[in-house]
Amino acid sequence: MSSLLSIGKSGLLAAQVGLSTTGNNITNANTAGYNRQVAIQGDTGTQYQGFGYVGTGTEIQAVRRYYDNFLATSLRSAEANQASLDAYSGQISQIDNLLADPTAGLSPALQDFFSGVQDATANPASAAARQSLLSNAQSLASRFQDMSAKLTEISAGVNSTITSSVNEINSYATQIAAINNTIAGLTTDQAAPNDLLDKRDQMLTELNKLVKINVTPGDNNMLNVQFGTGQPLVVGNQPFQLATASSPTDVSRVTIGYQSSNGNFSALPDSVFTGGQMGGLMEFRNGALDKAQNALGQVAASLATAFNAQHVLGQDQNGDLGTNFFNPIQAYVGTSTRNSPASTAEVTAVVTDGSALTASDYSVDYDGTNYNVTRKSDGKVTAVTGSPQEIDGVTYTFSGTPQAKDNFLVRPTYNAATSLSVAITDTTKIALAAPIATSAATANAGNAKITAGSVDKNYLTAGNALTAPSTLTFDKASGTLSGFPAGQDVTVTVNGTPTVYPAGTPVLYTDGASISFGGVNFAISGTPVDKDTFTVGPNTSGVGDSRNGALLAGLQTKNVMNNGTATFQTSYAQMVNFVGTKAREAQISSTSADASVKQATAAQQSVSGVNLDEEAANLLRYQQAYQASGKVMQVASQLFDTLLSIGN
C-alpha cells in the first residue's frame, strides 16, 4: 500500500508544479521579456517484484524555459535597425521642415535681396533704393543666421541625446554584469534561474535599442556583450564604462570613448556605433546634419565672396572704388588639444574664392617637416608649399613653430551662415557704378564704336587703376592703335585667341576684338579712319551709372558655385532636395523596419510567448491530474484501512 500511496503522492506533487508553472505563465503573459515555461515530467524508475518491473511514480525533472537564441538574436537585430531608423528619421525631419518652409526658408530672402539689387541698379541715384538694398541684405544675413542657429540647436540636441544614451548604456552594462554574476551563482547542472535569464534578456533588448550589440556565451552561463567592431561592454561580471567628452578639435561636438580608472579618455571613432539609437544619431550627425550646415554655409560664403569680388570692382557715389559689401568669412579652425605643449603653431583660414569652395571639412597635419591639408570628403591631400596658400577657395596662413603630429580641424563653411554680416552701413558706399568710362570722339570720321568697358580683379593691383584718361589713336597706314598707358602690356583677343603686345608698342586693330590692359576691358568695332580717337579713363560722373550694379544683379543667375556649375538658388535647392530625399528614404525604411520587427516578434513569440488558450487547457489537464492523483492516494488509504480491519 505504501508504494501506491507514494505513486499517488508523486503524481500529486508533479501536478501541483504543473499548475504553479501554468499559473506563472498566465500571470506573466503581458510581462515584457517573459519566456513561457513548461514543467517537464519523467518517471522515477521501476522496481523488480519477482514477476516483473513495476513503476514507482513520477517526478519533475526540470522547468524548461522556451527560448530560441536564433530567433531572439534576429529580433534584436531587427529592433536595433528600427531604433536606428526611428532616431535618424526623427532628427532629419526637423531639418526637412526647416529648409523646405516656403516662407521661412532661404529662397524668399535670396529673391528679395537680388530684387533690391535690381531696383538700386534701375535707380542708382535714389537713396531710398539704396537703403532698401541694405535692408534686404540685412534681412538675408539674418535669415542665414537664423537657419544656422536652428541647425546648431539640433546639433546641441543630438549632443544631449548622445550623452544621456551613454549614461543608459553604462547603467545597462552594470546591471547585466551584476545579473551575470547572480545567474552564475545560482546555476546548477540541472537547473538555471529562468526568471533571471528573462530579466537579463530584457536588459539586452533595451541595451540593443540604444546601440547594436553582439552577445556571445561566456563561462558558467554568463554572457559577454560587445558592440561595433568588438568593443566590449560586458565581459562576464565585469562592465566597461563609456564616457563622453568634447572633440579635441571642436568643443561643440561630443565624442564617445572609454574612461580609464586613471581618468584618461580614449575616444572611439563614430563609425563603431552602428544600429540602435546611437547609430542613427551618429549617421544623422555625420551625414545629413553636417552636410546641411556645410551646404548652407557654402551658399553664404560663396555669396559673400562673389558679391564682394564684384562690388570692389565698382565705384561708389563718392567716386571711390568699392569696398567689401559683406564682411569676410573666416573659416572655423580648431586646434587639437592633443598638440604638443611645445607647439606655438597657429593656422588661420579665410574664404577667398566661393567658386572653388567645397562643403567638406579639412584636416591640417604637420608631419615634422611640412603641413598637409586633407579634404575629408574624399581624402585628397594637398601639400602646403607656402604661406599664405589657397586650397579649394580657402586661403591658409601658417605661423608659429609647429611640432610633429600637430593637428588642426578646418571647417570653411560650417559657421559661415552664422558669421555672414553686412559690412556697409552708408548707402553712398554701395558701388553700383563702373570705375572707368569710355567714349569715341565726336569728330571721328569713321563708324567705329567703343563699348562701355569693364574692369576685372587685375584693376585692383597697385598702379593699374586709371588716374587720367588715355586717348587711343588709330593709324590707318599701319592699322594700329596707340596711346595706351605707359608700362602696360595690351592683350587683344580674337575668337578666343589672345595676343599680347608689349608696353609701348602699337596694337594691331581688329574689328570687334576684345582689348584689355591693367584689368581694363573693352572692345572697338566698326571701321575707323585715320586719326580717329577713343578715350578710356576714370569715371568722373558715376552718380547715375549702374554698370557694376547690373553685374552684381547678374550674380543671381550666374553659375558661380561648385567651379561654375551652380547658382546660389540651385545649390540651395540641391541641399533641400538632398535632405528631403533622405527624410523620405528614412520614412520608407522605417516602415519596412517596423514590418521586420513585427515579423521577428511573431516568430519569437511563437516559441517563447504565452498562449492563454493553451495555458487554460493546461490548467484543466493539471487539475484533472491533481484530482486523479488524489484519488489514487484515497484508494490507497481505503485499501490500507481494509487491511487493518481484517487484522482486527
From TrEMBL:
<dbReference type="Pfam" id="PF00460">
    <property type="entry name" value="Flg_bb_rod"/>
</dbReference>
<dbReference type="Pfam" id="PF22638">
    <property type="entry name" value="FlgK_D1"/>
</dbReference>
<dbReference type="Pfam" id="PF21158">
    <property type="entry name" value="flgK_1st_1"/>
</dbReference>
<dbReference type="InterPro" id="IPR053927">
    <property type="entry name" value="FlgK_helical"/>
</dbReference>
<feature type="domain" description="Flagellar basal body rod protein N-terminal">
    <location>
        <begin position="7"/>
        <end position="34"/>
    </location>
</feature>
<keyword id="KW-0964">Secreted</keyword>
<dbReference type="InterPro" id="IPR049119">
    <property type="entry name" value="FlgK_D2-like"/>
</dbReference>
<keyword id="KW-0975">Bacterial flagellum</keyword>
<comment type="similarity">
    <text>Belongs to the flagella basal body rod proteins family.</text>
</comment>
<protein>
    <recommendedName>
        <fullName>Flagellar hook-associated protein 1</fullName>
    </recommendedName>
</protein>
<keyword id="KW-0966">Cell projection</keyword>
<feature type="domain" description="Flagellar basal-body/hook protein C-terminal">
    <location>
        <begin position="607"/>
        <end position="645"/>
    </location>
</feature>
<keyword id="KW-0282">Flagellum</keyword>
<dbReference type="Pfam" id="PF06429">
    <property type="entry name" value="Flg_bbr_C"/>
</dbReference>
<dbReference type="InterPro" id="IPR001444">
    <property type="entry name" value="Flag_bb_rod_N"/>
</dbReference>
<dbReference type="Pfam" id="PF21159">
    <property type="entry name" value="FlgK_2nd"/>
</dbReference>
<dbReference type="InterPro" id="IPR002371">
    <property type="entry name" value="FlgK"/>
</dbReference>
<keyword id="KW-0969">Cilium</keyword>
<feature type="domain" description="Flagellar hook-associated protein 1 D2-like">
    <location>
        <begin position="337"/>
        <end position="412"/>
    </location>
</feature>
<feature type="domain" description="Flagellar hook-associated protein 1 D3">
    <location>
        <begin position="435"/>
        <end position="538"/>
    </location>
</feature>
<feature type="domain" description="Flagellar hook-associated protein FlgK helical">
    <location>
        <begin position="92"/>
        <end position="326"/>
    </location>
</feature>
<dbReference type="InterPro" id="IPR049474">
    <property type="entry name" value="FlgK_D3"/>
</dbReference>
<dbReference type="InterPro" id="IPR010930">
    <property type="entry name" value="Flg_bb/hook_C_dom"/>
</dbReference>
